[in-house]
Design goal:
Pfam families: HATPase_c (PF02518), HisKA (PF00512)
Shape: elongated
Order of helices and strands: HHEEHEHEEHHHHEHEEHEEHHEE
Catalytic activity: ATP + protein L-histidine = ADP + protein N-phospho-L-histidine
Coiled coil: 11-38
Oligomer: single chain
Structural class: alpha+beta
Distance between the termini: 131 Å
Enzyme class: transferase
EC number: 2.7.13.3
CATH superfamily of the largest domain: Histidine kinase-like ATPase, C-terminal domain
Helix content: 40-55%
Strand content: 15-25%
CATH class of the largest domain: Alpha Beta
Strand order of the largest sheet: 2-1-5-4-3
CATH topology of the largest domain: Heat Shock Protein 90
């Protein structure tokens, strides 16, 4: 036996090592390829998860902004369509002693579905998410219109439960067996969005019922209070009338103490008249029973009557009321009583928030522009209104600053009613105010009459 050639042995060794290196290279390439595939799958899963999260956040935003039940379900179905990839879907609602109703559907034709119910539906409502790979032979689907049933090959049924109601989400696809285990799992996860929509819809319905009940109760209250207007005002008017009569009597003029006592009674009665009057006027407004009595208004007389009514309030805070009527004021066709009430409310408001100052009533005709108007301005030298309070001045029951309503006779309704009456007569009311300087209310009434 001869020894092998050393060069031949080295060649064989090199060939063996090259074969091992080649196998290692191939194994490394296969591993790299597998890693690339896994990375691609991971990236796709991350992309899908991000898309699903985005859809979920969009759905939650829809729920948060919901104000009406039907558009709410339509938006939720739109969001779920991106996630579950169905061709069409509908939500069928169930209630005791009532046939199942289609609450919302992506295809208008699905609203005509008369869902029959049965053992299969009971299983779904008991909490089972069930996919049907073929609708043709299913008993409950046999009751659905054949043309519509024939358009879709598979369906996924998802239970939805809320506090007072039950529903079922039905997802449809034209491909047979479309709803695989992965899609069923996804449907279970995202069905929470549809369930929350059902709960939100319940809350919206409850809120609407409560709101309607509250509105009906408020209207009934307003009608009752408005109908009591005569019964409440007549005794107070009698007290005011008797006080005026007694204040003019010789006994009151000759007895200072009696005159002072009668004056306090008169002022208190006037304030009470204004408080009750404003409350009754607001009730009439809420009940829709405030009407206009149109006639020719003598502006000067109306202004003087308003000032006479406001004088006791001015005297209470040691204020002076000054009247500046432009000469030759045109007659106004409007409601004299409503105009007088507007001016009384504005003058009373100025007197309440001014102490030892002046309140001016200025009336001018403005014939400039296309809308000639009669302009009434009530100016005071009071404390003014802070800028942040200007937005609430005309709101019902708004009180400007730390005023004791019990002492000032303030209900927070005078300016609200003045604004409503002004607009009822086709006019506008604006205000300008500076803290520490005073406030000016400007009422413009069209000379052509009420709008």
């Amino acid at each position: 036996m001869t020894n092998a050639d050393p060069d031949t042995e080295r060649v064989r060794e090199l060939e063996r090592r090259l074969a091992l290196a080649e196998r290692a290279r191939i194994a490394a390439e296969e591993e790299v390829a597998e890693l690339r595939v896994e990375l691609a799958h991971t990236g796709e899963r991350a992309r899908v998860a991000a898309a699903h999260t985005e859809r979920l956040l969009e759905g939650l935003e829809v729920l948060g902004e919901a104000r009406d039940a039907l558009p709410l379900f339509a938006e939720v179905l739109r969001v779920l369509g991106d996630v579950l990839e169905f061709d069409a879907a509908f939500v069928v609602g169930f209630a005791p002693d009532v046939s199942p109703q289609i609450v919302s559907a992506t295809d208008p034709r699905l609203h005509a579905v008369a869902w029959p119910g049965g053992a299969f539906t009971d299983r779904v409502l008991a909490g089972k998410t069930i996919a049907l790979f073929d609708l043709a032979g299913h008993p409950e689907w046999q009751a659905v219109d054949p043309e519509l049933r024939g358009e879709y090959a598979s369906a996924l049924h998802v239970p939805l439960h809320a506090l007072h109601s039950q529903a079922m989400l039905v997802c449809l696809h034209r491909r047979r067996g479309f709803f695989t285990a992965d899609r069923i799992t996804r449907a279970r996860r995202f069905a929470a969005l549809a369930r929350q929509a059902l709960r939100t819809a319940e809350q919206l319905v409850d809120l609407e019922v409560d709101r309607n009940d509250a509105v009906a109760l408020s209207r009934a209250k307003s009608r009752f209070v408005a109908s009591m207007s005569h019964e409440l005002r007549t005794p107070l008017d009698a007290i005011v009338g008797y006080c005026e009569y007694l204040l003019e009597s010789p006994a009151a003029r000759e007895g200072p103490e009696l005159g002072e006592t009668l004056g306090r009674i008169y002022l208190s009665a006037r304030i009470l008249c204004d408080l009750i009057g404003n409350t009754l006027d607001l009730s009439k407004i809420e009940a829709g029973r405030m009407d206009l009595d149109l006639d020719t208004v003598v502006v000067g007389d109306t202004c003087r009557l308003a000032v006479i009514t406001a004088l006791p309030l001015a005297a209470r805070n040691h204020n002076t009321i000054r009247v500046d009527l432009a000469p030759d004021l045109p007659e106004l066709r409007s409601d004299a009583g409503k105009l007088r009430q507007i001016l009384i409310n504005l003058l009373a408001n100025a007197c309440k928030f001014t102490e030892a100052g002046a309140v001016d009533l200025v009336v001018r005709a403005d014939r400039s522009g296309d809308a000639p108007a009669l302009v009434f301005q009530v100016r005071d030298t009071g404390r003014g209104i802070a800028p942040e309070q200007l937005a609430v001045v005309f709101r019902p029951f708004a009180r400007l600053g730390p005023v004791d309503g019990r002492k000032a006779g303030n209900t927070g309704l005078g300016l609200t009613i003045a604004k409503y009456l002004t607009e009822l007569m086709g006019g506008t009311i604006d205000l300008a105010s500076e803290v520490g300087v005073g406030t000016t209310f400007t009422v413009r009434l069209p000379l052509a009459g009420a709008a």
